[in-house]
């Protein structure tokens, strides 16, 4: 195996003087603790290029890839990568629900003009930072995060002391982000969130990381087959 860096973001791989294709690198300013890799290979190498790339980049390597790319995933796992996160992309309807939705829980709407919107953004920032810490820590500032990430509408609930305990950011029928500090009420919040969405739309869609307990609880409301996923692999 030989590596040749053909530009600052691209390595070309060779075996027996034959090019196997390229591995490109890129960075994510919101999660900048790793160097991200993107593969454009003609064939899978017989030996690993990852140690050399890791040395040159001087950061852990991260790959985000569909689980259906089995040959490439097997190659990564055999050569030092570890799967750190499974992300499931669900598009579901009310007919996919495992159980009837419970209605006795107060869920309130918000939009970008409401005074509580900034508190909901702060709430999301803290939850997002916590749930990403072990896999790909958030490196953006709170201001950068709030400028780029939250949608302009959603729903929230309050505890008995009037404090936020559950928040969902939505855009039309998408549940973009779900966050909670209260496992005892989150399930009821999700039920009533879904009631409101299914009154307007026939389907909803969302992503659920297995490292995100609230999103996993949302996914578990539905009969959903976890056949395919979009996964995160890290090479330390």
UniProtKB/TrEMBL annotation:
Sorted UniProt keywords: Transferase
GO MF entries: transferase activity
Protein name listed in UniProt: GNAT family acetyltransferase
Species of provenance: Lactobacillus johnsonii
